């Protein structure tokens, strides 16, 4: 059964991620396009470096071609934000990206984008699931790939330069050139190697690259930037005395950063740095949007500049929708995805990385210095994060306790309010908070907690761990 989560449809290769299911999805989407009378506008599909990604793109393309829908296939592995940009720029009604983003190598999946290059929202994905449920295996037709190329129903394209030029035009390349920065780049065996490196070299940065070969197993590691997975980048920044170390996840929609001192910057810190920079140093005005599990330090920075911070459920589609509604400067999530006003309507690690390099050049300050500046002006808050694997029985138990019975452990802090918008989030009167929610992309229960001091944050997570019998 094909079901969409917060990051699209993801499944284990050879289990549910199969040619049959991929083509069922393509047939269902082609039916939806015909019902909406948008099939004449065509379809665009891209793919990442995962095992079977290119083949999956072609399998889907052959179905669209057989259904009379002209399909544009990216002829090289590409960042997810490139597809979103292309859908937006060329006004496609839909687009698809074959990727499982930061999931383990045994997974692959498909993200669906709608008009404007947005992540398909829950209304759209539920409708698509309904279409899928009505497609029978014998309904699926496919056109031979070479035949589709010959008759123009499939067109191979390479819009990389178009995407890169869009970013280059939005970034202060002169400031970066004048600064002569040294950047360590870790694509994590993913798709950013060409795109981000091209931008950095165009800006005359000295680029030190690691983990850039094509490896469908991602070097045996999770292709998700974290303190654990970026140890090699951390050492590289220190050894080579780089100004910044930048990593991107498997499909380059998220980033991880090592600062000039070799410290791993949490995605929360990256969001705070960029919002502060755009408002204080670039003179932008407007609110910020974060999801329910992202740092409230953004609230503090927004308050410092007389702006608002808006909270939405997890899922970047909610962030992009609220950004459009409020004309926000920036929106992002604690897992490392963000976008900026005037850019695409989804996460873009390539653009985020380019902005961070610009920030160092324009301010003339090191990342560590800007972080201290923010702490001096806006204060600080400490986050504790924990992930727990579970089986279906345990998931049902936790859901019953938190969401249905609405039980909580005995908390030693005054509660301001409780939200069940996405998981269970408790807000405290001292400005702290704790949330427990199930991941939409992996079988994990995630607990995030922020408090004015780290000891209280750890204590609260321990309380939840004991209360829910997670260990």
TrEMBL record:
Its cofactor is:
Mg(2+)
The parts of the chain that form a coiled coil are none
The record's listing under CDD domains reads:
PGM_like2
Q: Its annotated pathway?
A: Lipid metabolism; Glycolipid metabolism; diglucosyl-diacylglycerol biosynthesis
GO MF annotation, one = magnesium ion binding
Identify the residues that the record assigns to the Alpha-D-phosphohexomutase alpha/beta/alpha domain, covering every copy.
2-136, 162-262, 267-374
Catalytic function, reaction form? alpha-D-glucose 1-phosphate = alpha-D-glucose 6-phosphate
Q: Which domain of life is it from?
A: Bacteria
Pfam families linked:
PGM_PMM_I (PF02878), PGM_PMM_II (PF02879), PGM_PMM_III (PF02880), PGM_PMM_IV (PF00408)
Q: What Enzyme Commission number does this protein have?
A: 5.4.2.2
Boundaries of every Alpha-D-phosphohexomutase C-terminal domain copy: 425-461
What biological processes does GO assign it? carbohydrate metabolic process; purine ribonucleoside salvage
Q: Which UniProt keywords apply?
A: Isomerase, Magnesium, Metal-binding, Phosphoprotein
Protein family membership = Belongs to the phosphohexose mutase family.
Query: What is the protein name given in its UniProt record?
Result: Phosphoglucomutase
Q: Which organism is it from?
A: Velocimicrobium porci
């Amino acid at each position: 059964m094909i079901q969409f989560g917060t990051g699209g449809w993801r499944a284990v290769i050879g289990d549910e991620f199969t040619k049959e299911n991929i083509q069922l999805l393509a047939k269902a989407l082609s039916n939806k396009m015909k019902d909406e009378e948008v099939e004449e506008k065509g379809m665009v599909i891209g793919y990442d470096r995962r095992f079977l990604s290119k083949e999956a793109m072609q399998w889907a393309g052959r179905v669209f071609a057989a259904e009379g829908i002209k399909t544009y296939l990216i002829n090289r592995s590409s960042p997810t934000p490139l597809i979103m940009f292309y859908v937006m720029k060329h006004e496609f009604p839909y687009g698809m990206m074959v990727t499982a983003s930061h999931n383990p190598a045994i997974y692959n999946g498909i993200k669906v984008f709608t008009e404007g290059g947005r992540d398909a929202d829950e209304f759209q994905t539920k409708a698509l699931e309904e279409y899928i449920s009505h497609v029978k295996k014998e309904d699926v037709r496919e056109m031979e790939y070479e035949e589709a190329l010959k008759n123009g129903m499939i067109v191979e394209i390479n819009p990389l330069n178009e995407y890169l030029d869009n970013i280059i035009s939005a970034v202060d390349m002169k400031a970066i050139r004048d600064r002569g920065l040294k950047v360590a780049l870790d694509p994590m065996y993913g798709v950013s190697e060409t795109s981000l490196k091209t931008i950095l070299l165009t800006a005359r940065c000295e680029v030190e690259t690691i983990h850039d070969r094509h490896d469908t197993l991602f070097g045996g590691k999770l292709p998700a930037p974290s303190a654990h997975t970026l140890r090699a980048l951390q050492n590289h920044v220190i050894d080579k005395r780089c100004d910044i170390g930048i990593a991107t996840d498997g499909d380059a929609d998220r980033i991880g950063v090592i600062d000039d001192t070799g410290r791993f910057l949490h995605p929360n810190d990256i969001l705070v740095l960029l919002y502060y920079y755009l408002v204080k140093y670039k003179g932008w005005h407007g609110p910020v949007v974060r999801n329910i599990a992202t740092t409230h330090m953004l609230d503090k920075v927004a308050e410092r500049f007389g702006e608002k911070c808006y909270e939405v459920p997890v899922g970047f589609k909610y962030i992009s929708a609220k950004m459009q509604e409020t004309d926000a400067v920036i929106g992002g999530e604690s897992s490392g995805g963000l976008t900026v006003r005037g850019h695409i309507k989804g996460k873009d690690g390539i653009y985020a990385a380019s902005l961070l390099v610009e920030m160092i050049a324009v301010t003339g300050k090191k990342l560590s210095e800007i972080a201290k500046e923010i702490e001096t002006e806006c204060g600080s808050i400490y986050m504790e994060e924990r992930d727990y694997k579970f089986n279906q029985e345990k998931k049902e138990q936790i859901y019953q306790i938190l969401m249905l019975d609405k039980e909580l452990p005995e908390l030693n802090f005054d509660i301001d309010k409780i939200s069940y918008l996405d998981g269970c989030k408790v807000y405290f009167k001292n400005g702290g908070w704790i949330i427990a929610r199930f991941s939409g992309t992996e079988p994990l229960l995630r607990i995030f907690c922020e408090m004015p001091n780290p000891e209280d944050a750890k204590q609260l997570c321990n309380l939840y761990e004991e209360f829910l019998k997670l260990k």
